[in-house]
Amino acid sequence: MASRALARRPLSTARGLVAARSLHATAPSPKNNPSATTITEEFKPPSQGFLGSLFYGSALARAEGDLKQLEKKQHSKTVGRGKYVHEKITHAVIPGHRDEYLEAAEAYFTTLVKESSELSNVKLCGSWETIVGAVGNFTHILEHEGYAGYDEGRVLVAKNATLQKHLNAMLPHLQSRQHQLMSEFVFLPMSPPRDSGYPDGGVFEMRTYQLQPGKLLEWESAWRRGVEARLRFVQPVGGFFGQVGQLHEVHHIWQYPDLASRQSARGKAWTIGGWADTVQQTSRLTQRMKTTIMVPTSWSPLR
Questions:
Q1: Structural domain tally of the chain?
Q2: Which of 23, 93, 110, 144 could hold 150 in an S-S bridge, CB 3.0 to 4.6 Å?
């Protein structure tokens, strides 16, 4: 698909620069996994152990999400994992400036990864280009070690001469930029870096819901009960809710080999009992929604 082709080859050192969490793991490469380019009939998350805890939450994390135990806590502490703050950065690129933007953005974000330890351990989770939706937009998600990490990192980034040089090279190619601070849902934390083995990294779908004010806890409860129907057939990336910037907004991101696989996986979810109820319950709590199809950039740790 021509629109999915990347303008630039990845930097030769980009893979080696990825600063991962200490528990980050990488998926098998297609060389060792001949079926990596096709979505399995049923995607089965680990039921226990290290990977099960990493991708789907430990028993403690699941207990922390029990609404009956935590109904008296504030919503963000009830539904959010709380350990990390994720920063969603959206760049709207001026038409005709894509190649220049990619060059400057690659330099900025690979430098950020390389110098993570000097920037309060900020990490790049992923970088994507929109191909269906607001075409010309690029989305980047950073991970900070709580709000203290965000505060410290913001100051250090502003003082880093190399990063500021690359940022200044990006700005002339942008129409606008938006930043949103988010928390992970307990039941759908951000994935660590991985190479899926899908051609060009496959496609990523970001689904965004603008909720009615005050309905986050109810939305999370309904969605958490039904999300198993999705996890059987698709690789999750993460689920988030806005805390600073746009409020009452939820995002969840999924990865597929291609759009045909997406259609198949979504159809199979409807065969699982309870999924229709989840859709009905969450829809009535939502003011509006949209879906965005994205492809990873050459330097994205998630591919």
A1: 1
A2: 144
